[in-house]
Amino acid sequence: MKKSFYSFLPLILLFLALLSTSSCNKGKASEAIIKNGKTEIEKSKALPEKKISVIDTADYNKRMLALANNDTTGKWPVKTPYPLPGAILPYNRIIAYYGNLYSKRMGILGELPRKEMIKKLQTEVAKWQAVDPSVKAIPALHYIAITAQGAPGKDNLHRMRMPFKQIDTIISWAKPINALVFLDVQVGHSNVKTEVATLEQYLKLPNVHLGIDPEFSLKHGEVPGTKIGTFTSDDINDAIDILADLVRKNKLTPKVLVVHRFTQGMVTGYKNIKKVPEVQVVMNMDGFGDKILKRSTYLSYIYREPVQFTGFKLFYKNDIRKNWTMYTPEELVKFTPKPIYIQYQ
What we know:
Helices cover 37% and strands 18% of the residues. The protein has helices spanning 5-36, 40-45, 57-68, 108-111, 114-131, 164-174, 192-197, 200-203, 233-250, 291-303, 329-332; strands spanning 92-99, 136-148, 159-161, 180-185, 208-212, 231-232, 255-261, 267-268, 279-285, 309-314, 341-344.
């Protein structure tokens, strides 16, 4: 016997009640998802958000003040844009060995056999770390990749570019000790833009940085070594522009640019030297002599004409002639400002 419609009514009502509850719950769940953001499907389709990395500016400011070493003139620390994340300075003090593999007279880097040189460098790094534990001391190999020449050469530019295999050698030496590499440029009768451009394939590497030497930039035809040369701010800015462009295009951390100086005329227009987040500029006191002369040079041309960071060169031989003595790390950390780049020749 067929059942009447009314006999199924309780079941129908129960089904409708369950359906209503389910729809209500789905609505609440959807509402919750909308309140909290996107649905799971939308989330799966969404592109990941770009994370913006920035430096700890309070920490950076504190470190820069420490380098200024209680300067009361307002010159130090220099007001510059904050660097990009991953900047080497002021978080590290660079301890560099300088020279060329073709000459034992140009610096400690070419004078000693590799193993002996590396061991001696690491000893210097340890000394600096002990004297100033607040800043990590790190090693560097500062290689003269383009050298000024007394002879004009085939292109009449009084400079010689070292073979790339030598740069490769320096980079291979740096790797086991996690050292930075600096490629130094002496332009002779050429110019910064032309010579630095030849090194771009190496400057694209994260651990390779640049040095430029105005002593050997002779703009009026003089023979290198017979007169001290000069860089204008435009010359230095050419190097900064090249480095900044490489940093941006290759998504690199900031490059360090070392500019050597020991006379007034070696650098002109210091106030016009660019300050950009991609490049950290070190003005390196590059002269040899007794302590009084070297300190006077540092005060006259590095301290009084502030750019960004400071360096100090020490000569194993030329700083100890005539009963002179070489500055120690303990003495140099008392300078105002404290040098953050130390170069041994």
